Description:
This protein has about 550 residues and is α/β, with parallel strands linked by helices. The chain contains 18 helices and 19 strands. About 35% of the residues lie in helices and about 15% in strands.
Amino acid sequence: xxxxxxxxxxxxxxTPRPDAGRWEKLAYDRTARLAxxxxxxxxxxxxxxxxxxxxxxxxxxxxxxxxxxxxxQDYLVRTLFGxxxxxxxxxxxxGFIGLPRKNxxxxxxxxxxxxxxxxxxxxxxxxxCVATARDQANIVVREAQxxxxxxxxxxxxAQCFRNSIVLPEGKGRLVAMGRDPDVLWGKHVSAAVFDEAxxxxxxxxWDAINTSTAGRSQxxxxxxxxxxxxxxxxxxxxxxxxxxxxxxxxxxxxxFAWISAADEDKSWDSEEAWRQANPGxxxxxxxxELATVAQAxxxxxxxxxxxxxxxxxxxxxxxxxxxxxxxxxxxxxxxxQLPSTCVVGVDLASTTDLSAAVAAxxxxxxxxxxxxxWTTKRALSGSRGKLYREWHEAGYLKxxxxxxxxxxxxxxxxxxxxxxxxTVAKVFCDPHQAYHLLQRLRDDGLRDEQLVEVLQYPxxxxxxIRAVERxxxxxxxxxxxxxVLDWCVANARIQIDSGGKRRLDRHRSTGPIDLVAAxxxxxxxxxxxxxxxxxxxxxxxxxxxxxx
Length: 548
């Protein structure tokens, strides 16, 4: 038989921040509705707060100081652990916590993971931190290890390994796990932290976690994440459900929901929006730093990144690579005198639609780019045939084959540069698409050190894109009137990964972007140092954990 209901705890437990956003306020409003489903155990809530308060921060300005929960964290922890069902078990079994970057997600998650390991009174606790990569999951585990070492009692009761914290005699563990859902099948998980859901392309891991808790009396699975792009993945599913719970459209007493985000009607670059979204403002997040980042976010992609990571807003891909009016400001007549040396970017992503090259000339403070695009005769009668025919007749689009673009035409264009007295210093391209062309260019005298591979991953493309964006916004990238290039710029969309790094997104772009890709390769490649590809670190779980 359950314990009798008790009155809700006094303020400020149930009082939102004065500048909180809509979703955060709805989380507080929901508190009053919980009483019909169970009761609030103030002692149980206080137990978790005291446990967290016995830990000390290990980094930043608060290093060495006790972990004192902010009012919003205090509400979150007391609500999550204080509400019980009429049967006396924890009410919340699943939860979604949405926070912008740098608001202490990892530290709070680590502290709660330690409580669930040491003090939740769960026999043989098995707590897992799951992310798309073990290194990401390890952020929470390593933070937990730092917190553990700050407490003289706890550090004597567990051992820390590379990816885990292990209790003696196999009595429990906290472990980081990567993206392989098969590892979770057969496990007896008592609690889980599902980190950065926006980075998960599918729901396999979430399903694996949820089906591994069936044998526990009061399991807790928490998703803690910053916003992602709208693409219908597991993040969208969890956030949509959480918003419906907060609005009262879905009655699920076992689902905890907390979302700190700026309201959609607030300007992204306003202090009001920053305060709404960031409950840690003035502590883990500084207003001056947000202002600095916002001031530098001049491109659509940078503004999208700011809204996602600092305002926790779900947004689609950027509206364009750069705004059309900014791009148009760089249009110039061809300089009378160009340097005798250039760099070239080549994009051969399509063999039937468009292939592209851009020769870029360094004029000192500015760059001049000359685009060239090739297509096939068949494309002139395809879905874009009318447009392509007009551009071909005007000299902006070359024919390089009947059904398939023949790379010999591109090779001859390179020879034309050389015969015209132009030295090609470097050629930047995607090696997987340009293998045969690169072999021909080697035959024509280009050396291996002149042929630079640009791998198509955000890690390699991000600095190139940023360099070109900066030049465009500073009006230091000049280009001739060229409708095919302008069209590709208008088509281009940027994808931003979970680490804030960017790449050109061909799937979401509204048409071919080949000339933009070639321009980014050439100018961005010349402006930055392209990282050499290396082997990924081998990640092997500790032998001790395997034995357990």
